[in-house]
Structures are given as C-alpha cells and as structure tokens.
Amino acid sequence: MLFRQAGIRHTDYASDRALFPIPADRAMIVALLAFGLLAPVLVSSLALSSYLTPWLVWTSATLGLNLIIGWAGQFHFGYAAVMAIGAYTTVHGVRAGIPWEIAVVLGGLMSTVIGVVFAFAALRVKGLYLALSTLALQFVMDWVISHVPAISGGVGATLQAPAMRLLGQPIKSEVGLYYVALAWALLVTLFMLNLRRTALGRALVAVREKDYAAAVIGVQAFRYKLVAFATSSFIGGVSGAVLIFTFYHAVTPEQFAVNVSIELLAMVIVGGLASIIGSWFGAAFILLMPGQINALIAWIAKLLGADIGIETLAHLPHAVYGALIVGFLLVEPMGLGKLYANVRNYLLVWPFGYARK
Amino acid sequence: MDLMYLLELGVNGALSGLMYSLVAMGIVLIYKSSSVPNLAQGALTMVGAYVVLAFADGAGLPMWAAIPLAMITMMGLGLTIERVALRRLAGRPIVMILMMTLGLDIFLRAVTLVIGGGTARPLKIGVSDAPLFLGPLLLNRAYVVGAVVALLLFAVFVFFFRTRRGVVLRAIADDYMASWAVGISVERGVAFSWALSSLVATAAGVLWGSIQGVDQSLSLLLLKGITVAVLGGMDSLGGAILAGIGLGVFEAVASGVLDPMLGGGSRDLVVALVLILTIMIRPHGLFGRHDIERL
Amino acid sequence: MSAAAPSTVLSLNNIEVIYDRVALAIKGASLDVPPGGMVALLGANGAGKSTLLKAVSGLLKAERGEITRGEVHFLGENIDALPPQARVQRGIVQVLEGRRVFEHLTPDENLVAASAVRGTGGADLKRDLDRVYGYFPRLHQRRTAQSGYLSGGEQQMLAIGRALMTRPKLLMLDEPSLGLAPFLVAEIFDIVRRINQEQGLSVLLVEQNAIAALEVVSHGYLIEGGRIVMHDSAEAMKKNPDIQEFYLGGREGRDFNEIKHYRRRKRWLS
Hints:
The complex is a heterotrimer of chains A (about 350), B (about 300) and C (about 270). Chain A is an all-alpha fold and about 350 residues long.
C-alpha cells in the first residue's frame, strides 16, 4: 500500500532501468532533497556546521571506501592516508594560487596516482595480505607527512587552509560551505547509484564474487581491481580536500592518522557493505553515537553523583566504536543498510505479508 | 659509524626482536589452529599487563602470584572472546573476521584504558637494572630475560605441535568440515588455541611492560608483531623466532643509522616498509605454508 | 524392554531435510543398512545423495541444513540430537565428497589426527596405522609427503584410511570415484569390499557411477529429486530397464536419430 507497485508498467528500456521506479521512492528522494536544500533555513546554524556538513563529507568518503570494500571486495585499511594526500595537495595548490576547483581535482588525481601505483604492487596479493599492506601504507604515509616539512610544515604543524573560492566567489559562510559539501555528497551518491547499472559495476561485482571465474568469462580481474582502486582513491582524495575546506579549515597530520582509517572502516561495516543508503546511515551512526554515549554516561554519572575522570571520557568513544563494530558483525553483519532493507521489504508488500519473496 | 656501536645495537636489537617474536607467536598460534589472523593480539598484550598490575598493585599480591593469576584470567578472556565473538563468524568471508578482530582490538584497548587509566605505570618483575656485559657490548638485562622466555616458550610450542593435540590443531586449520567428519571438535581446538595465545600475550605484556611501562603504547606492538608474523610465515613458529631476530636487528641498526639523518621516529617507518616489502616479494613469508591449489 | 540386537545398523525413517529454512532437499526418504551389509545409494547430480549422508553424519548444520521430519536411528538409537563428534564416537564416519584431506599435513599426520576421537595411543595406534597401510600400500610409500600434493587416487585412499582410523561401525562414502581413472575406481572399490567382508564393517556407498557401484554392493537405493524411488538387490537393479536407460548408459541398439527429447520422463511408482 505504501510502496504501491500496481500500475507501474514500463514501456521502454529507459523507464525500466530508472533508478527509482516506484513512486513512493521518488517521493522520498524528493522530500530528502528538499530537506537538504532547505536545511540552512530549517536547522540551527550550529547543527548545520557541526553535524550536517561533516556528515555529508564523511558519507562521501564512506561511499568511496565502500566502493573498494563492498563492491570490489578488496581491502583498504589505509583510506585516511588517501584522503590526506588529496587534502594536502589541494591545500598546497590553493596556497600556490591555483583556483580551488582545479586544486581539488589535482588533489583527487594525486590520490589516484599514488593509489594506483601502490595498488599495482599490492593487488598481487589478496585477503589478509592486501589488508596488511594497505595498513602499512597508512603508517608510511603518516610518517612521510609528519616528517617531511615541505608537505606538512613539520611534525605536529598545522597548515592553514586559505578561504575557498568557487568560480571566483569566496565562500566563507557556513551555509555556503554546507552547500559545497552537499553537492559533493550528492555527486558521489549519484555516481554510486549509477554504478549498479553500468558494465563497470557488474564487472566489479563479478570480480568480488570470484575473481578467477570472472577472468574466465573475460572480465580482466586485475584491471578492474585497479579501476576500483583508482576511482575510490579519487573520491577519497576529493573528500579529504572538501573535508578540510568545509570543516576543519586547517590540516594537520593527526586528522588522517590510523584511527581515522579504522573509523571509516567502522562506518562502512556498520552501514553495510555495498549499501549506498547504508553508507549514509553508517557515517551518521559512527559520527554521532560516541558523542551521544559520552553525554549519556556523563548524565548518568551526574545522576548517581559518581565522578568520571576526563581520562575515562576520553577513551569512551573508542570503546563505543569497538563495541559497535563487534556488535554489528555479530548481530547483523550486513549492517544498517540491511536493517533498512528489511523494513522496506516488509513495507513493500504491506499489508500483504504473505506475498513477500 | 662506530662498528662496536652498531654491533651493540644489533645484539640488543636481536634480543628485543625475540620479544617481538612473543607477540608474533601469539598471532601464529591462533592462525596455525584456525586460520584466523588475530589483529587483537596487541590489545590482548596490553590487557595482560594491566591485569597483572591489577593483581599486583590493586590486590597487593607478590609478582610470583600475580602473574600466574593474570595468566589464568587472560586465558578465560581469550576463551570468552572466541566463544562470543569469533565462533559465530566461523566460515564467513575473511573481511568480516578481520574487522571483528580489529573491532575487538579497539574495544579492548579502550575499555582497559577506561578502567585502568592512561598514565604509564611501572611493572617490576625483579630484573635488576645493573648492566650486563657481553665482552665489550652493553646488553639490556631485561631484554635478555625476555629473549630467554621467548625461546623457552618456542621450544614448548614446537614440542606441543608434534603431539597428537598439536596435529589435531593443524588439521582444524586446514579444513573445518573434514575435521568435523572425523570426530575432531573444531570448537574445542580453536578455543584452546585462543587460550594459549592469551597466555603468550600476558607473558609478552609483562615483559614489555617491565621495560617500557604499562600504558596504551603496549598495544602498538601489534604492528611489530604482525610484521614478524608475516615475515616469518603466518603459521610458522620457527619463522616467528627467526623473523623476530631479523626484524629486531634490522630495525635497531637501520633506525640507529637513519635517526640522526631524519630527525628521529624512523623505527616505525622501517617496520612498515619491511611489512610492505615482505608482502610484495614473498607474501607467505620465510617459512609459511603456500596455499595448495589443485586445479 | 529386552535389548534385542538391532536388525539394521542404520535406519532412516521418512527424513525431510531443508536448507536455509527454505530449500527442500530431501522429501520423505527411508533407507536401511543391515549389519555387515554394503548398500549403494545411486542418483544423478543434485538428487540429494550427499545431503542424506550429511543428515546421518551430522554435518548438515555446517551448511545451514536441518532435519525437519523423520528420524535417524543408528544401532537402534535415535541420534538426531547428537553433534557430529558424538556420532563419530558412536561409530558413524563419512568420507566427504572430493576427498577433503588435510592438505598441509602428511598422510601419517592425517591418520593420527583422525585417531584423536578414539584416543588410541601407543601400540593400538600403531596397529591401526599398520592396518590402514595394509589396505593401502601405495599410501605407505607416500606417507611423509604433503597430502595436498598426492594424486587424486592416493588422496581418496587417504580419506578412506583416515575414516577407518576412527574405528567406525558404519562407513559412508560420498562419491569416491569422483575424478578418478577407471582402474583406480575398480581398485578402490575392491579394497572397500575387502574391508566390508574382512571386518564386517557396514558400508553405505553413494555414487553417481552406477555401473561400478552395482558391481560391489548387495543392494541399492535410487534417489531422484530428493525422493527414494527404487530399492532392490544389485542384480535386479542391473537388469532393470529403467535403470539401464537412465543410469547405465541406455538400451542396446538405440538409434539417436529417433529420440524426440533428451530424456524420457518417468513417473516412479514406489
């Protein structure tokens, strides 16, 4: 009843392959887009800049990582390093006077190039070893960035990001930055949604399921894995750049350290492998949960009159991350996206539950 | 570069490398028995040290009582982790298992810090600070103790894997289904390997904790432990020992040479580079098994 | 109740097996193996032969399958609730399809690993090992090699020998002829028949290769689409025209020009 499918008849291929054939889906997307565009009016300025903007950027990064892990079935334990490359390249580019739009693309390309060079060697191995080599890449990148002053300005130094100028117009207001982040997130989401319907997407899924079987039917596994790495690195690099310019406004090595890679992995896993809406949920969950749990525990402590040291509160978010990862893998390995899909499947045929496949 | 100095670095590096082997052996034990790469080994090492401190400082027990009690507690923890977290994921794709151990690593580390506090605390196991001289070379006495413990445990485990119990564990790692089919209890075997591994982790935690203090940096041993395990071969105990010595020497000498040039902090870089190179050139390490594929 | 010797070693009564709670794999199958008997279970790919074996050996759970109806009785005891280890201890052992030897262990270690369930040690262990190598001398020659590098025939011998180390009362073989040259198949089947006759070990032989199987067994069952559709002595099955057409290579003198469709549909009445 809610997702009425009766009367939907496709008369040409285009409508058959539409992204959202069910009117209820379309209505939801329109509503969400409307909310997204009107958010600065509907939501407080604090919520906009502290919650919505970072959520949008981290979602883009999560989608990029999901492309590698969920769609292509490879591993990447060093995604933060990829974002760092893009971020630093862009900042240096803008500081050198290059227009922002071009600097961002340059940042993405730099990430892609380094990502591909690395992947060329790393993709000779699979599974655990691929994961470990990406983790090692993260460490090496961490070290290079902190210890090469030309890149980072020295150990622990902060590199100030100049104001963003889009098409010549400086964008300094939070609303403006929010729209930039929104645009990027929508672009990446659209890309991922379309990926499913393209040959590239199908090839990636084939490679993910059984790469030698894919090779047998003519899908060059290595080439497609490289393509996945390249695309994912580009998205990561640009996301890193956008993150700096719309949220942090300055770049330090700590922002893209190992724990950030783990955080991104948590977003992907909690959200759900190969689930687009899952990535949106996962990013929100991981961003918000620790803060909320912290607040909850502090409130309980105050209620009970107990004293919780700063130390405890500092480590609590990590405990929550860890518990979330463990919990989701035990209870619902396919993540929030699957939970959403379950609800949607139920509603698709409601109230005719027996018609469910 | 003074040759004597390099030699001293090398020997001490070999000793500390053997202590890395301790962490690596914990990883290898679990991998050898269940084909699960345990990325939570660093956290377990750290938790082990904290538990010893809890018994020693918290309950006021002497070290010779605190350590065994801690080991028993840690074995219980290992069994619990295996039962609750890993058993459900048996047979699932490795990405999930890796993520699970990673999640456990984060969780255990954070919870321990929440309970135990983040400031470094000393762990005294009665090894004197008096310097030990091997000819003209100055050795770290604590490292020597650690190296000896590592070699002893190694000998014990090598002997163990020749017994029938050990053969059964290796069989489980090869093929769960076939193991079930001949009456082997896969569940018990995997649980046992986790218990053993936790014991090793506690030993490593105590030894490293006595050297560098008990705080969260102990869990960073994971990178060194994993590198040694990969370099030696994920399922080879002998490989863990040899690779530990090798990596220890290389790390000490290389960072001794590079640090003055690069301004410090090159130890971790060297280890990460060794890891990458090993995976690129010879993923199954020095003595690891090749995965046999009959097509 | 007097404890009468059970008339069957294995007795399946109207078994229904479902995978993943949705896929019905076995529909009401009943099967008996007499003590010391050698029985064949024949059928095409996907008929449900392996599933039936796993229902007996308890390995269904590992593949998300369960018995939803009917009972499995072994030596008069209902074993539905027992885990695989307990069933092996009772005396049931399955040799898995595709051998599944422990690849990185030597044949010796493979056999020792299987002796763990009985806890045999010392002289008993040596006697068991000698007995297995007695049946499979070729294996003895290769006993220090890595099992993954053995040939298919040697791996099959190892898998059977490994099962024997558990001192079973019922040996269940899942497609032992898979991927083997005909002379090896004959050799292995011969050895299995010897084991059956010399030790009185009951054997349930699951095979696609009906010709070879019907040579060594006393009687057979035919399973198709999850149902047992025939049960007869081996001689009768060999002569049965339907079996000949569907499983033994067809009738004499059939002109392929006359065939209107690839395979005649048969409504089995049983």
